[in-house]
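Work through this protein:
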Amino acid sequence: MIRIIVAVILIFVSVVLGVLWIWPKYQDSRSTLFQIAQVKAGIDAARDYTENLKEIFNQLAPYQDNLAKIDMALPSQPFFPPLFEYLSKIGSERGLIVSEVGSVKTGSLKGRPKVQEHSFSITVTGSYPSLKNFISVLEKSFRFINVSSISFSSGPQKGVFNFHLSLKVCSY
């Protein structure tokens, strides 16, 4: 009889110790499985997002040339030195000399707070037909260059004038 009681007590103690030892391990494994499920869900979401981006990229692929033109027309940064070099090059090719570049004033475009409008002035010297040709090229330029105003004064020679142009360009 004592053997049976001792056997029952030993079985009970071993079951209690087993449960007390196994239960925390079981909880840890459930916690780990839950974390793994969360990571898998995050990976699946990232994979879906990547596939969506690839699909959008493939849809936009035929329009890469047009998108590049838009990016050139409305750059994310204004990059004034290349713009001034471009204006000087166009002017010299059309018979004008860019003699002065005024300071740049920046402000938001009305109704579009993300689009920045930069206004500045330049002074060019040359003939009226050269100025007309210069403005024609600006209108056909890859950048959106808006001529706000033009004023002129007599130049050093007959038929040569100093033209003061107020220009505006945009960036986003």
User: Anything to note?
Assistant: The chain has two domains: 2-62, 74-171.
